[in-house]
Amino acid sequence: MFIPKVKLVQAILAFTTTLVAANGCYDGGLVFSDLIGGSVDGDINDFSNKYRGSASPPNAVVTHCYPFPQSGNRLQMSLQNNQGSSQDLRYEDCTRYFGVERTACKHGSEQDHGSFHYYIYPNDGNC
Prior knowledge:
alpha+beta, four-stranded antiparallel β-sheet, Killer Toxin P4, Chain A, signal, 127 residues
């Protein structure tokens, strides 16, 4: 009897994690695989590297647009400090949370993780 309870708990945790990760998913528009001529994962790393370790003032927003020239599309990313005080962005958190949203939400998403609001969206047109 102990083994089925463990498996039930594992299933509930997996389902709950998916719901939390997918809470801010968009349900229409381009999907990440429509972006051709670049690397979404590379862009996530670049964005995270640019802003890591920097003190973000309260409610500050940083944005960046990455072009995908072969498809004529773009990847829009932004990050907002949701706290009433200055916060430091950790590279590891930034790549992890953008990665969670990219994996869980094929059309992009926006959602709060920790002290920041993450936005990642594949979109039509150039930057």
